[in-house]
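Supplementary notes (optional reading)

For those who missed the lab, this is the record we used. Protein: Mitochondrial nucleoid factor 1. Length: 127 residues.
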Amino acid sequence: MSATRYRRFLKLCEEWPKDESKRGRDLGTFLRQKVASAFREGENTQISDPEKCDRMYESLARINSNMYKEKFPRAKDTSFTGVTVEECRMLLATGNMQQTDEEKKGLWKTVMDRFSSKPEDGPPSEK
């Protein structure tokens, strides 16, 4: 029975789309890694909680088949902020996230430099 579960998860992993714009943060890649670690012995892996495993598979399969997107269609393809799906994808792309992180580091470094710098002449002495 474990072999059947393993094959079902492998098929799901094959069908799950990869988002190349999110290198290292892609849900499909994360899913593949989790399946590989859960089924270390492949078809011979013993499942401690088969019911939980089946529920997890069914949940992931429903997400992958867009069941909820079809069941609860959206009136508009924007959020409450007015940002479109394409704009969200662009903002969440790995390249853009790295650029934002560098900008944050720049600001943090600036703040730290401002508070940690010592005056060049030292404190004024009283005469």
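If you only remember one thing from this example: The mean pLDDT is 79.
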